[in-house]
Design a protein that fits this description.
Helix content is 67%, strand content 0%. The chain has 129 residues and is mainly alpha-helical. It has one domain (11-126). Helix 2 (17-34) packs antiparallel against helix 3 and helix 3 (48-69) packs across helix 5. The longest helix is centred in the middle third of the chain and has 22 residues, at 48-69.
Length: 129
Amino acid sequence: MSRPSQIEPEPVLLRYRKSLLSSWALYSAALTASMMVPGDSVPDLGFLGWDKLAHLVVFLVLAFLTAAAFLTREHVLAIVLSWGAFLGCATEFAQAVAPGRVPSVGDAAANLVGTAIGALLIKRYLFRN
């Protein structure tokens, strides 16, 4: 199996590089802030699986935004996986000190799975030979 080569970004991505970086930073900040909201103000979704699915989808989107923001970097998949793992675990650890929040291994796992699925899709569709 060959190693993925350097991505040649589309000209449109280069043109909007600052916007992509800004969008990535704002999304990361909003994601972090939303995970620190006190537990009593988070709506009860009723079904246990919806919470994990929401974590998965939010981190899948984060993976794509991270890839778009750092597309010209040589190790984009490592950046995507590292940022998703860091933010996914850090937000769960931070919930230990947030009022009304309780960290969850299941949520951290859903965050990591969402990031991994995003990375696999990025590898599949951006690194085609």
